[in-house]
Amino acid sequence: MQLDQRSSSSRREVLRYAGAAAAALAVGSSAGAVAAAVNAADRKRVLRIAHLTDVHVQPELHGDHGLAACLHHVQEHARPDLIIGTGDSIMDSMETAEDRVKMLWGLWQRVWKAECSLPAEHCIGNHDVWGIHKAASKSTGTEPLYGKKWVMSLHGWDRPYRSFGRAGWHFIALDSITHLEDDYLGRLDDRQFEWLVDDLSRVDARTPVLVFSHIPLFSAAAFLDGQHEKAHQWRVPASIMHIDARRVKDLFRKHPNVKLCLSGHLHLVERVDYLGVSYLCNGAVSGGWWKADHQECQPGYGVIDLYADGTFESKHVLYGWKYAEA
Ligand SMILES: [Zn+2]
Predict the structure, then answer these.
(1) Which residue ranges make up each domain of the chain?
(2) Sign of CA dihedral 96, 100, 103, 104
(3) Is the pLDDT of residue 7 over 60?
């Protein structure tokens, strides 16, 4: 029964392609245009994503109005099916005392509730982890909401990474932040890496996979963030790009259905294609932390169309934010 359905659907596909090719030929197009027509007929958009990262919401410099403006723009212009947020949602909780962190998360929740009716999936950024710097945050490490527990309880997560399916794609939300004493680095701890190995092994090889993390798994722009020239050497800190990039890359090589990785953290816009995987860093909603552009990065977000055949198209969109006078 299944075989019959498949063969009749592939016959229909062939007829559809033939029709598209004939239409292209009828207007005197080149062989390339025929191929493009066939490809276009083959591609079915299944999901549109708006990728918002590094909002760093705060009342200062109208950061809360900035998030609202971005959410309005997303809903009016991009009209996605889903928003993916890759962390650093609030200005800071790494070195900020409990009362202010409470205020910032309250602000975050109020703006989303009031201004956005779309479903959203988030992952954790370094600034979302409360008390990484204990002295500055006046935390002891024993508080019920210490570390990642605050952001996890807010989202109702029982662990800081997870996966889910949507529109024929498999989505993996990673936790980039390895929390050290008074510091952090971009790395999946061994437990999470084992979970990722297992999760990918359970995904059908024909199902395309989108991975999202706060810190880029792989980045070229990371080389342009810092004072390498003065130091006379290229040195990308483990807090800027995943230090375990090599083992993640080796794992992805075993799963060619991993197509796309989204991240933030750098406040830079880039796309790196490497060994069949595209790595997109989509700037920052806050630009340069609501003060000014960060290098060439203006306040914006990514729009990504996912197709049934595992391909995607993406663009970075500015939502027209004008920085407030400091
Ligand atoms: Zn960050």
Answers:
(1) 1-42, 44-318
(2) negative
(3) no
Give the Å distance between the CA of 222 and the centre of ligand 1.
12
pLDDT attached to residue 231: 83
212 CA to middle of ligand 1, Å?
13
CA 204 / ligand 1 centre spacing (Å): 32
pLDDT digits (tens, 9 = 90+) for 96-115: 999 999 999 999 999 999 99
CATH no., domain 44-318: 3.60.21.10
Instruction: Tell me how far the alpha carbon of residue 209 lies from the centroid of ligand 1, in angstroms.
Output: 23
63-77, pLDDT tens digit by residue? 999 999 999 999 999
Instruction: Give the tokens for residue 181.
Output: 């004493």
User: pLDDT band at residue 188, thresholds of 50, 70 and 90?
Assistant: very high
**Residue 299's closest CA among 324, 280, 278, 274?**
324
Closest alpha carbon to 173 in 130, 238, 219, 120: 120
Alpha carbon of 186 to ligand 1 centroid (Å):
10
Q: What is the pTM of this model?
A: 0.87
